[in-house]
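[retry 2/3] Peptidase propeptide and YPEB domain-containing protein: previous attempt timed out, resubmitting with same input.
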Amino acid sequence: MRPRFLIPLLLLAALAVALALLAARHPPPPYPRPPARHHDPMPAGHPDFGDAAPGWMAEVIPMHQAVRRAGQRFEGRVLDIALLPPGPGPSPLVYRIRLLTRAGDVLDIRMDALDGRFLELRGADLSGVRRDKPNRKD
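[retry 2/3] Peptidase propeptide and YPEB domain-containing protein: success.
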């Protein structure tokens, strides 16, 4: 064998041995892999919805629909939306939506998470943020 082919061949053999040793040291994960979690567990200090009826979560309107309803009724940019835990009020589950108005004020909207009714509205200049043609389907 010619010397110019000998050195690359030895390097290739050494690389193959090193990769084989590395693969033997760290076996691949078992197949099939465990299913991916759909959500992370809630961090400590957050409310637990364990005492809510199981069917409620299936009936809750999605967050994007709640944001769309609020956007149809009020002008502003959504800052935050949160599903509040069951409380003593008229609705067991409530979305809290915070909007930033053009004037720079924060509008706090409480919406029934089961049927999308507006329950409460707080903020400055409430008449100025309401759209001309409100959504009357609510």
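[retry 2/3] Peptidase propeptide and YPEB domain-containing protein: The domain at 59-129 is CATH 3.10.450.40 (Nuclear Transport Factor 2; Chain: A,).
[retry 2/3] clearing retry counter.
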